[in-house]
Amino acid sequence: MKSAEDWPYSSVYARLYGNARQMKLLSPWPVPEPQNYSQWLNASQLKEEIQNIRYAIQRSRPYGSKEWVSSAVAQFGLENTLRCRGRPGKPD
Fold first, then answer.
1. Does residue 34 share a domain with residue 12?
2. Could you tell me if residue 9 is inside a domain?
């Protein structure tokens, strides 16, 4: 498997090896770049994390910590993305 630095169309490649034209497309980091950025970028994701990301994409719901998701849902009126799909069950 190649690392992110080897992919010529990635922003990390452009920052490391890019020309002036590529660099114009990138904004500067809004915070200091993490020291272990390359390791973090190339680390494998857990299967559970991948499943959660895919589910968030399918439901068009925010992805992140429970607190952040709750805040984003309230701010942008996305309550329907947290509900189960389909018709509600009959009461017992």
1. yes
2. yes
Domain that holds residue 59: 47-81
Average pLDDT, stretch 71-85?
Answer: 89
d(CA 75, CA 64): 15
What distance lies between CA 37 and its chain's CA centroid?
A: 15
Give the C-alpha separation, 89 to 13, whole Å. 51
Give residue 65's pLDDT: 92
Output the CA angle 24-57-12, nearest 5 degrees. 25
DSSP structure class, residue 77: T
Q: Is 0.85 surpassed by the pTM of this model?
A: no
**What CA dihedral angle connects 57, 59, 65 and 70, to 10 degrees?**
140
